[in-house]
Amino acid sequence: MKKTILLLATAASVFMYSQVGINTTNPRGIFHVDGLKDNPTTGAPTAAQGANDFTVTSSGSVGIGTTTPNTSAILDVNVDGLATGSKKGFLGPKAALTSQIDQSTIPSPVAGLLVYNLGTGGLSYVGYVFWNGTEWRTFNNGSLAAGTVGAITCNGVTLSPGTYTAGTPYTGTMTVPYTGGNGGTYPAQIVGPVNGLTATLASGNFNSGSGILSYTVSGTPTVSSPTLTTFPLSIGRQSCSATVGGGSVIAPGELVYYHSSIPRQTTSFLLSQFLTDLPVINNTFRVDGFITAPGAFDNTGGSTNFDPRVYNITAANAKLWASEVSTFTGDGGTGNRLLGPGNYAQFDDGVFLSQGYNETVTLDITTADNKWYRVYYVLRIDNKSTAGTPVNGRDQAPTTDASNLDNTLEVYISIQRLY
Asked: Is residue 174 over pLDDT 80?
């Protein structure tokens, strides 16, 4: 009887204070299960041998698929030892939550609790969510509340590429700015087709504050730019019309500068005859001007020899509205203009442009897609500091033709997007 008691005591001591191995005589932790019984009798198993093991270390770390769980992890699930094609993932608990504040499906959830929401119980979001103490949130800490925005800035919508051609398949991105986002979710959207094009938005979360929605626009258009395409948008409890297809646009508030020089000419000319990179509005209207020479390059007094022009550079009719202000007088020929392909609208009744008379011109132009641009022309003759006869204490430009040979026309243009 005494021998039996001693044997039981010894076994209990081994169980309580030593390592326990199942399917192995070489346990690598306090508790070690070798699933395939393929570990060596001495030494550490290879990664492939340890891939079927379960181990608990003396520090309390648990390793699945490894006999050496990382010391910084309470649970280390490792598939490095599994061959490609045989690897496995982690499958978390699933639930069908009823809302982003559901505390009934899983009673009294603790902060940090993780679950995969099926999207069938009332909370439509599908994917892993965690309880933050007051609500279920996405992995990136996004709110699952219904998303709202204060306003959609449809006037600031851009499309890239900015133009399309009828009959040619098109794929691009339409960006839609918004303000006043609450951080909540918005559903996927399909808008269209309009003119053969469809705008598609994946589900996601609004930013808290301002942000941008990115729609994929695709299809085979039935029209060509600059014929516009308007998508009716309704999202975040706001609606607006997003008009695209006029070409690359300047963003609201953006200011674009341009400067170049033209050497002295003896005949009349368009700026674009010498300047091939003049700025273009909406990929539709080239900002240009007609110069009457040689008066503009010589000291001929107050000659009216500059006419501001805007050309339609597309193959279709294009509409604009314009008003013009100059430092002298305008021609009054502003307002509603419909320009055919290659046609132009001319402003002012001839701007003073010579060595002693440099007039500035401002155009306000609005386009058919409700964008407002302000165009500034500043043209001047530069006589390269060639000295003239002082008059009333000021240098007067020389009057001889020979002294004007190095004169240049300096062209300054800026375009500001106001709306």
From this structure: yes
Alpha-carbon Rg for the chain in angstroms: 38
> Do residues 49 and 26 lie in contact, with contact meaning Cβ atoms separated by under 8 Å?
no
Count other Cβ atoms within 10 Å, centred on residue 17: 8
Degrees to nearest 5, angle at CA 322 with 344 and 367 = 85
Instruction: Provide the 3-class DSSP secondary structure of residue 49.
Output: helix
User: How far apart, in whole angstroms, are the C-alpha atoms of residue 157 and residue 177?
Assistant: 7
Helix (H) or strand (E) holding 307: strand 304-312
Q: pLDDT category, 6, cuts 50, 70, 90?
A: very low
Structure confidence at residue 294 (pLDDT): 64
Beta bridge pairs of residue 312: 285
Q: How far is CA 250 from the centre of its chain?
A: 14
Domain with CATH 2.60.40 in the chain: 151-244
Q: How far is CA 356 from CA 131, 217, 411, 412, 413, in A?
A: 75, 53, 16, 17, 20
Per-residue pLDDT at 162 exceeds 60: yes
- Contact 245/233 with Cβ under 8 angstroms? no
CATH of 151-244, one of 3.50.40, 3.30.70, 1.25.40, 2.60.40: 2.60.40
Tokens of 230: 């308007």
CA distance 33 to 54: 5
Whether omega for the bond prior to residue 221 falls within 30 degrees of 0, making it cis, is no
pTM of the model: 0.55
339: left (phi over 0), alpha (psi -120 to 50) or beta: beta
How far, CA to CA in Å, does 46 sit from each of 37, 76, 92, 316?
13, 17, 28, 72
